[in-house]
Design brief:
β1 and β2 form a beta hairpin. By secondary structure, the protein is mainly alpha-helical. It is 68% helix and 7% strand. A two-stranded antiparallel sheet has the order 1-2. GO terms for molecular function: DNA binding.
Length: 153
């Protein structure tokens, strides 16, 4: 049976843990690489695709296309991203990491993983991390599809 108090407590812990973890990782990336986490995340999206678009960043990171476009503008101004015209659609652009973008991302990924190992790996077993990952993936899937949770009470 649903318990609103337990659900509210879960919500509080989930949101506050996300904020603390974001701030810790962001601080470490800024200190070591002068790279904010808000740039690191879109750069990872671009690195993971052959022909990334602003919309790919928006959908992957659950932000608006306008917000993703502004991030891309800032990252490109820093010299980490290039925009290329889509060969078949002159209105669209593809994104690509520059050489310096690839270099900083490669170095920052090590720092990112080191910080996660410190913050998460040192406090939980791999099995527990997998359990939490599966549980949060389920919550995320259901939150993304309002039809999957049924009608409101």
């Amino acid at each position: 049976m649903y318990d609103g108090t337990v659900a509210a407590e879960l919500f509080d812990h989930l949101v506050r843990a996300q904020i603390l973890l974001w701030n810790a990782v962001d601080g470490r990336l800024r200190d070591v690489h002068d790279l904010p986490l808000s740039w690191f995340e879109p750069m990872r999206v671009v690195a993971g695709r052959d022909h990334a678009r602003v919309h790919d960043i928006a959908t992957t990171l659950l932000i608006t296309d306008g917000g993703a476009s502004k991030l891309v503008d800032r990252i490109a101004a820093a010299g980490y991203l290039d925009r290329h015209r889509h060969p078949d659609d002159g209105r669209a652009t593809w994104l690509e990491l520059t050489g310096s973008g690839r270099a900083v991302l490669t170095a920052a990924e090590k720092t990112f993983h080191d910080e996660l190992a410190h913050r998460l790996g040192s406090t939980m077993s791999v099995e527990r991390l997998r359990e939490m990952t599966d549980a949060l993936a389920s919550v995320r899937r259901q939150a993304a599809d309002p039809e999957s949770v049924g009608p409101r009470p």
